[in-house]
Amino acid sequence: MAAQPKLGGVSLPDRRSASKPDSNILSRITSSPIVSRGKQAASDAAFVSKKLLRSTGKAAWIAGTTFLILVVPLIIEMDREQQFTELELQQASLLGAPPAAPARS
User: What's the pLDDT tens digit per position in 38-57?
Assistant: First the structure.
């Protein structure tokens, strides 16, 4: 039984034989030393970019966690101390004491 084409399908053109000049040009271009050097350069660039992104990601992780562990608690404590100083100045002004200059350390 012969295979019948499907209705509404797309028929592809016949493949050209290897003896035609178009396929020889394509094979010569893809196997040329310039193309192989370009492929190697692209591969090397991708490798270096991947390593750079990985090391940048590690550095960002270290910087971020260090900031969270060391700097954020310091900022919170400084804010708490500033609020405490403002509260003392407010209480002193309510009690009628002369305002004192804030202590500088």
Answer: 999 999 999 999 999 999 99
